[in-house]
Amino acid sequence: MSLSSNTPAPLRNVILAGILQTALFTTLIGAHGALQGAEPARNELADQLRISAAERSRSGIVTTLAIADSAAGMGQAGSNDLALAGTVVAPPALLAIASAPYGGVVQQVHVASAQLVRQGAPLVTLHSQAWLEVQRDYLQAAAQAGLAEARLQRDTALHADGIIATSRLEESRSAAMLARLTADERSQALRAGGWDSAAISALQRSRALTPELVLRAPRAGTLLEVEGNPGVRVEAGMPLARISRSGPLWIELQASRAQAERLRVGALLHIPGCGSAKVVAIGAAVSSANQSVPVRAEQQGTSDCLRLNAYVEARMAPSPVQVKGAPQSVLLPASALVRRGAQTYVFVQNQAGFMATPVQATQAGADLVRVQGKVAVGDAVASKGLVVLKGSWAGLGSEGAPVSPTPASAPAGAK
How far apart are CA 202 and CA 138, in angstroms? Predict the structure, then answer.
């Protein structure tokens, strides 16, 4: 409707008021739509927790890889079919043995089991007569090499003046070479006892022999055990200490033949209270003693929750009977769940830190939960040390609290 100067004043005011109301309503509708479109992006940013690798290490945050749950919406075997028993061992690549290079009597033990040692740290001191003889032999060989070298230089000068024959010079050259080889051999025997070039040079200058042989750590790590007490005689080559450096451990498991048929190299096993382990080898033969199949799994991550020689239990995914249309789910430790209001969340690790991801959880075992949501197989999910994550998240609302999963017989969120 258009307004003219002939329009009465009361009617003109009514028309202007209607136009203003229509414009205001249109503006509000547009702003509401923009806010609704931006809200998911804000929520996604709010649930992203920026935690650096250093902060994760200081806070004791431990992640567990999500395991494939092929039993979601499927038939499930009995719980006894899920458990594998085994013992924690150290991979050969992590172990180092310190052996006595020469026989002798233990004088002093410098370390104790379970102690951290640095490379080159003294472990055991021996009183060794054989070590004394090695030093004497080196000094004799070094002296002979010096004499042979001096004779060679003298004969070289005489040969240049035409005083001696070439054959005599060749004999002197051959004798000097053999003397040097003998001295080098004796020096290698000293290096086998732990001496470096500086110690060998010091011996050659001082001529001071010592029967004390110090056995040193070949690498840094944790001392697993040390053999021998003061006064005990040891032979050459006898192992006196075992050292293990930090790294993922192995679990030597025993599986029944039925369990072995369901396992594949690369499959993830859940270790109650200690994350997960990956199957790296499956035995080709059955043990004649107990008819079990040996299975080796490697710890995922470097958490110190596993101890050498400890007896542990690993759980595998139930055997499935696929049902079409069943929702995809993964298995996680129950300790990975937190609740915020009526919603259950897990913290999924990503490049920026952790993402608080909403999920639906149901009980899958004594300490396992079946999780459905934006969590894929192999995703690293925080399962320990959640205090820092929940504290960071609390700035956006009330702090999440640990939550128990919904029983499998009841829907998620049932009371």
Answer: 13
